[in-house]
Amino acid sequence: MTMPPRQGLYDPSREHDSCGVGFVVQIKNRKSHDIVEKGLQILRNLAHRGAVGADPTTGDGTGILIQLPDAFLRTEMHKQGVVLPPPGAYGVGQCFLPRQDETRALFVALIERLIAAEGQVVLGWRDVPVQSDVLGPYVRSLEPVMRQVFVGRGPATPDQNAFERKLFVIRKRIQVESHAIMREGSKTFYIPSFSSRTLVYKGMMLATQIGDYYRDLRDPRLVTALAMVHQRFSTNTFPSWRLAHPYRMICHNGEINTLRGNVNWMAARRHSMKSRALGADLDKLWPLIPDGQSDTACFDNALELLVQSGYSLAHAMMLLIPEAWAGNPLMDEQRRAFYEYHAAVMEPWDGPASMAFTDGRQIGATLDRNGLRPSRYVVTDDDMVVLASEAGVLDIPERKIVKKWRLQPGKMLLIDLEEGRIIDDGEIKARLAAAKPWGEWLKQSQIHLDALGEAPAGAASPRGSNWPLLDRQQAFGWTQEDRQFFLEPMIQEGDDPVGSMGTDTPLAVLSTRPRLLYTYFKQCFAQVTNPPIDSIREELVMSLVSMIGPRPNLLDVDSADQHLRLEVKQPILTDAELAKIRNIDKLTGAAFRTRTLDICWPAAEGAEGLEPALTALRAAAEQAVLAGDNILILSDRAAGPERIAMPALLATAAVHHHLIRKGLRTETGLVVETGEAREVHHMCVLAGYGAEAINPYLAFEVIEDLLAGLRGKVDRDKAFKNYVKALDKGILKVMSKMGISTYQSYCGAQIFDAVGLAGEFVAKYFAGTASAIEGAGLAEIAAETVERHRLAWGEAPHLKAMLDPGGEYALRLRGEAHVWSPDTIAKLQHAARGNSVAAYKEFSRLVNDQSERLMTLRGLFAFKPAENPIPLDEVEPAREIVKRFATGAMSFGSISREAHTTLAIAMNRIGAKSNTGEGGEEPDRFVPLANGDSMRSAIKQVASGRFGVTAEYLVNADELQIKMAQGAKPGEGGQLPGHKVVGQIAKTRHSTPGVGLISPPPHHDIYSIEDLAQLIHDLKNVNPQARISVKLVSEVGVGTVAAGVSKCRADHVTISGYEGGTGASPLTSLTHAGSPWEIGLAETQQTLVLNRLRGRIAVQVDGGFRTGRDVVVGALLGADEFGFATAPLIALGCIMMRKCHLNTCPVGVATQDPELRRRFAGQPEHVINYFFLVAEEIRELMAMLGFRRFADMVGRSDRLDMQRALGHWKAKGVDLGKLLHRPNMPTDVAIRNAESQDHGLERALDHHLIVQAAPALERREPVRIDIAVRNVNRTVGAMLSGEVAKRYGHAGLPDNTIQIRAAGTGGQSFGAFLARGVALDLAGVANDYVGKGLSGGRLTVRQPADCSIVAHDNILIGNTVLYGAIDGEAYFAGVAGERFAVRNSGAIAVVEGTGDHGCEYMTGGIVVVLGRTGRNFAAGMSGGIAYVLDHDGDFASRVNRTMVDLEPVKAESEPAPSDPRQDPLAHDAARLKLLIERHRLYTGSALARDVLARWTEFLPRFVKIVPTDYRRAIKAMQVPAAAE
Amino acid sequence: MGKPTGFMEIRRHDRPYAKTAERVTSYREFLKPLSDAELRDQGARCMDCGVPFCHNGCPVNNLIPDWNHLVYREDWRAALEALQSTNNFPEFTGRICPAPCEAACTLNINDDAVAIKTIECAVIDRGWQEGWIAPQPAARPSGKRVAIVGSGPAGLAAAQQLARTGHAVTVYEKHDRIGGLLRYGIPDFKMEKATIDRRVAQLVAEGVIFKTRVHVGHDLALKALVDGHDAVLLAGGAEAPRDLPVPGRDLAGVHFAMDYLTQQNRRVAGDAVPEAGAILAQGKRVVVLGGGDTGSDCIGTANRQGAAGIAQLEILPRPPDQEDKPLVWPYWPNKFRTSSSQEEGCERDFAVVTKGFEGVGGKVARLRAARVDWREGRMIERSGSEFALDADLVLLAMGFVHPVHEGMLSEESLGIGRDARGNVAADTTSYRTSNPKVFAAGDMRRGQSLVVWAIREGRQAARAIDLALTGRTDLPL
Question: How far apart are the first and last CA of chain A?
């Protein structure tokens, strides 16, 4: 078995990988075998960034790319009697060939035939000697036959570049034609490299194995000047040889989020693409990007194409991964012009990326615009450059190092071996920016819509608009809620509206009401394998610029394309703007020609008319493009009683995909003019399926109508602006959820799962979109559309004067159905309060009874009863079953202390678990109450804000839950408004009362799967007894992520459904993001079982669990444990007001208002009663199903039956068969949690520290410890700190009790969660996450004595240092990477320079930067203060000033405060001096010495950064103090 | 959504009554409307609950949060639209509904409910006053004919819905005026009858034909109706009163409440009521048997007629002053209530069973009763607790058992099927009786109930009939 085929919900194309990447290069192109060995050494030292599968001898893949070793190959071939032509005149194809002789012969013949066909010469073959026995037996069973084919340059091929192009063409042809060979073993075939310059050795093995496996790599004759290496961490455990990196040109650590769109857009160019270099050969390359490859492989294909067409390597990389230019005021004009010009040439390949690339002559690396992957490099005095994901991968004597630096966001490092030098980012880009008159070309070709004159008067007479507004709204399915809940707040606030609690309405396909097509699409979001972005605080990387109209020829390298292109700043068009586009031929001298295509069809034709109308529309679009119309407007203005508008999304996707299939898509722009789209989600889906711009004309008319009712509170212009602004912000948020930064890449990227649409329908109109459960097809969608039309223009009395109520967001007669109804809530409350079996039965009947209302997917299942039911008294008792229950993560802050502690007491009494949620827990709750009750939450959540996450918090847990996403708003951060940050909440969160708190969308220490492994390792170190859990949200592909999570050694994974509740979330996310848990859970179970990873991880599911039946369905689909949130809250009195975000909860649950909190009437007994009633229902079902033990039920999906919704007009097509699939695995493969993870903690350095610190831990006696550290020693100090916190709480030990002196390279998370009393000093450098969660200890990192480079010009510590630090001090004598002190709550830190986003989201503490900072300093900073030494006087331009003020630091006479934290609004100079003195004292910093020596000279150059809210809050607190 | 913090800032304030001394002097309504500003404030108390319990507490599912919000926003016209989209006759319910919506209001958990009924009444009264309420005749006739038997709230609601969607509707009423129980059962001081006339005029303008003094089953055979129409809706009342078969029941001066109330309503309407059969309370010691709404109406009427004294006896024990809210809300609570009529003066006694009547000269003079205890739903007479009460007029207000079976519903008629309780059998989806062309709604189908339930059933039955006649329906739920 290699990668298993698609089955059930498992789809191999969703596999993710990530990894360690690196290269070593001799700048002067001096080749040696030493480089190979160094490459292999890097791999060994990055081993922890890779992963091992179920079998410890199976790695995820590793590889090395070197220059073609001519001398070695020459001798080797000579042995066969083959004399190779001179270097450059021959190439080598490294081949993975099938083991089956016959099959292999077919491939060999194919290769030889195509080499000849392209006019080149087959010189011979070489068997690559391998040592197979180093491989594990599993991998070995799949090992290919390794051979190299030698190709001589043909006589008609003029030079090496032309030869490389030919080799490229040959390889592509082999690849295309190889698919025809369908024999046993065919799938093994693959060509890792095929070049006259480079050679790739790679395979499915551990980093430590590759050097032994390929004997060539041990051969001293094998020499190269560069080695590019890669260690893979994939989410699966299937041996796949081909998926190892490097690819032909690149190694990648990261993920391309926009892949689907990028691949589509490449295909869409077919018609317009022409290459002078490749000429007619271009046609042989199709498909340019074959299906079913990894994102990296696709990227590699694109890069190769660009380079072979004549782009330089650097130019091609800048085209594919441009730095953020649109919002960067610091970028020079020429460079901006370069990027803007190229923006129209190609959409960015967007996503986190550390990409190393080479063509054998140059080698380089670049980072994505946001810098979401680490890359550190050193330059030595003997012309060597070593770059890797971590520092310390090669032991290089400090004295030999001349430079230590890192790749910065969007920046490139390039080494030209032929020129023998490093070309830095500035030079490369300046050279390219000056190479052509981009600016001029732009001026000639780029038209900004804003700059166009007004359309001729009367030109935009919209047809059809004479019909009454009410009828037209109805025809497009508008409801009262659209107006009241969406448009009204949008025009008033300019924001996407917010709501609370989850959604409990049926999926669109299960609804009896006609639903808009948009609602069948669920937004995808980033979790674990790539981070979401904060589109607000990190606005600088975001762009809504959209290009409308034809794209230039991608491969036209040198000349300005004749095509004009139209740019809009954002994609939502007003009517006036659309009028300009419609008349653009007149405004641009006919450079553009617009064609409006009517997307309505005759009402008389009824539902049957839709399909022919779509066919005609597609044909009309194709005709128009071929006729030269280069902007198509799809319009439903003609809708009226006689004309039915197609769903605009369907029309858009149909035309978009049709034009892609015809290779015509880039020859035209696609603009949608529709009365249907109105909310953010609608715009996003339209964009996702190809709309470059959208004119929601009816929304604008409705706004005008609304303005009348608002009585002049908002004027028309403001209302329009606010509406567009709200949409724009919402679109940015939806994009950023997936980690996508630019609209151009988002457009056509199809970042959605279809839920409830027929596969055939999706394949035809939305090709490439996942659809797990089948469902409605064109006929049903047509029927819905016709029904809307009929109601709009018909006689229904209740629609004559008003819109349909909607009822999506609040229950209404005639509106959408809700599971939580007055009756279900009342019955549940009566059952819980009265411990009433009768009331509970009514409740569960109402929820479970699906005969009339189909509400959920689980409702569609039926149980298969056992032939012999079991007597109820033989079934596991309820008291055991309830231990599998947990309450949901609800923070103290989102709900009241009363509600929070009641839940905890209840769960502790029954041996189940409650969850702190994000926001810490008051330490008084760690101590049991006198009556034996405990308010301590068993589960402590670790969320992106890290509020209150101290070592003490972590050790007081049975389970630590890493919240990757939340069902109600996956991919988003959160915000606790200042008015909720009161008293105890502020204290628990270690923040300032009255100052709002922001949780970032991503965990800034989890940008990838290997980062997650690191955080799991960190938490396990602090509290080795706790289970580590990872909370994911259901979406297609979540199973693959869960497999990765299991490989990251999490003990527990939670799959949350989209129904889950929330205190506050944009309505867009609440309803449209994430999938039902049934799909995600089933996929998780199937993928884990297939990967043999299920046994070692417990699976929990949550999101809308209400009854015992829900639990049993969950268990049968594969869950061990179950989370409930809304239901126990209702048991405590919640009545689903959905007003949590307003702080007006009238029953005291979700409010901090003291008056309202007094109304809380919940008791622990209510929760306990409820859970026992649920458990009894489960027992009855178990008896019926014949299960005595709950565990026996887990994963038994064979006991579920699909109860097809045959009677339902829409849902009859739903097919849950894929959810019920059980992988065919041997019986010894676990299908439920049965073993535990090996965390490898025994290797932790901390064991030694703990032993040596025993006197301190036991008797508070001071100790001193000396140790050596390497990059593989991760999380140093955390386990020791856990021991301190367990014994002494957050107060810890007296300062300096445990002094540790370390030397070497600190691995990741050096000094994480360091407790008070521990002082950890490192001479050397350290990697990412230094001082994460610092909990009172003191950390110093400084250069070793034998290092002579200038400390403050060199990198010292990695990215995301002091993330979530609570307290303590840190001194760093050197430069830090990106996001220094992100989410710092209280630590004091001094550093000598930082990367981008310094002090982001900081809420407390003090940061001193004695050097240059990167951009976006202080974004989202709401508390604490910072001082920056502004050497060059340009610091202000790099600050995000949204929330902070800049002030000079005045020399003042005040004495230094005894505690530097005292009164942050005063004592500035004295405090600053005190801290710099400490910095000098602890690190011996030369810079500090210098600054202090010339204090009066330096002092005026310091700038103080104070958040405005923080200052206001501090002043407010000082007033009463002063009054006393 | 009202005002988010309105409920924390504003107290409940409801329509006040005129003073007792003043109101018992006439049969006019005595509720005093609130001012616009007061109404706006009361609307602001609505929290626009995510799950509006009021909306389900209300049998017609009034869009209560919507019109509360609109009144707060002072958009009365839109509030009226919303109100009329669920309730054909808010002016009836705004006056006489016991307002289960207010019991279900989430503020009723730990605060005072929003004054929903008052706001409802204000919205509809405003609509009439402003002339916003106009007939809505159908755009085109459907060609189908529907007969409705009974012109109470169920029949009227069904008639209006069916007429508006184009069916030719004829309503048959046995009395001489339209309105059924609304007209004859409810005293004018609770609802003045011009309110009904105004609606009837609207229905007539919408094409409904009313035929009064036609007692189907007596004057006209049901079969004839069925043969002459595409559908027939039985929307009569549950008019068979619960009797008290005890010694002395046949004495003069012992009457069914409805006979008493009907007479007074006729008098107020200006009809002549013959001296001979007149039932009047003036100067009499009145005993009302039964503690429900009908009993209260008797008390209010008797006080207005100048009774010498009124006693009200209830067989069930005195309800608790406060319900066990955690186990009852949002449902209708059983608790001790004092109606406006009871407030006007009467003695109330509970857990009392009437053993018999004694008379003088064939006229009732005394009532014998005993105290009872209730154990697990069973009544046990307390030995030695018998007592006597002077009574010149005894009014039996102990509810109704089912519709009258004689005549239209008899075996000799079409033999329409009945349920175990003796009501016409039909479900609440199709509202169809055992005869496929015959439908039933309101008290005749569900047994005695509230006006608002009758309106709901009338509307829903109309929808079911429309669906049955045309294969589809746009009539709203």
Answer: 77
The Cα–Cα gap between A25 and A383 comes to 8
Amino acid at A166: K
Mean pLDDT over A1041-1060 rounds to: 93
Give the Cα-Cα-Cα angle A335, A340, A345 (nearest 5 degrees): 120
Report pLDDT for A461: 47
Alpha carbons A500 and A1065: distance in angstroms, whole number: 6
Do B85 and A802 count as a contact with CB atoms less than 8 A apart? Answer: yes
The structure tokens listed for A588 are 């641009």
Are B5 and A1144 an interchain contact pair (Cβ–Cβ within 8 Å)? yes
ipTM of the complex in this document: 0.95
For residue A262, what are the CA distances in angstroms to A298, A583, A750, B312, B362? 9, 31, 10, 83, 101
User: Residue B285 is part of which domain span?
Assistant: 243-398
Among B46, B49, B51, B167, which would you mutate to test the A interface (most chain A Cβ atoms within 10 Å of its Cβ)?
A: B51
Question: Both B252 and B370 in a single domain?
Answer: yes
- A1278: which 2 tokens? 């955390």
Assess whether A1140 carries a catalytic annotation.
Answer: no
Percent of chain A topping pLDDT 70: 98
The answer to whether the CB atoms of A1135 and B63 lie below 8 A apart is no
Q: Verify that B64 and B162 share a domain, yes or no.
A: no
**Contact predicate A1324/A1341, CB 8 Å:** yes
Query: Is the same domain home to B234 and B253?
Result: no
Inter-chain touch A1139–B106, beta carbons under 8 Å? no
Co-location of B17 and B121 in the same domain: yes
Helix (H), strand (E) counts: chain B = 19, 16
CA-based nearest distance B173→chain A, Å: 27
Domain end, chosen from B130, B161, B195, is at B130
- The number of domains in chain B is 3
Query: Looking at residue A640, what DSSP letter applies?
Result: B
- Pick from A480, A826, A1142: CB nearest B330: A826
Query: Is residue B157 domain-resident?
Result: yes
At B370, which CATH number? 3.50.50.60
Name the minimum distance, in Å, from the CA of B327 to any CA of chain A. Answer: 5
Given A791, A830, A1146, which is nearest B327 (Cβ)?
Answer: A830
Q: Are residues B200 and B248 in the same domain?
A: no
Tens digits of per-residue pLDDT, A379-427? 999 999 999 999 999 999 999 999 999 999 999 999 999 999 999 999 9
Is residue B136 included in any domain, yes or no? no
Contacts of A1161 in chain B (CB under 8 A): 110, 326
Residues B269 and B193: beta-carbon distance below 8 Å: yes
Of B7, B326, B331, the CB nearest to A833: B326
B248 in the same domain as B391: yes
* Residues of B whose CB is below 8 A from A709: 73, 75
Distance in angstroms (rounded) separating the CA atoms of residues A402 and A14: 43
B140 part of a folded domain: no
Among B85, B110, B139, the residue with its CB nearest the CB of A798 is B85
Which tens digits make up the pLDDT trace of A879-928?
999 999 999 999 988 899 999 999 999 999 999 999 999 889 999 999 99
Is the distance from CB of A1454 to CB of A1467 less than 8 angstroms?
Answer: yes
B166 & B121 share domain = no
CA distance B255 to B248: 12
Residue A1378 pLDDT level (bands cut at 50, 70, 90): very high
**Contacts of residue B164 in chain A, CB cutoff 8 Å?**
797
Q: Do B66 and A1155 touch (CB under 8 A)?
A: no
- The answer to the question of residue B271 being in a domain is yes
Which of A19, A298, A1048, A1134 is flagged as catalytic?
Answer: A19
B358 and B393 inside one domain = yes
Interface touch A1146/B110, C-beta < 8 Å:
yes
Of the three residues B398, B427, B454, the one that is the final residue of a domain is B398
Asked if pLDDT for residue A1524 goes beyond 80, the answer is no
The secondary structure element, H or E, covering residue B232 is strand B231-234
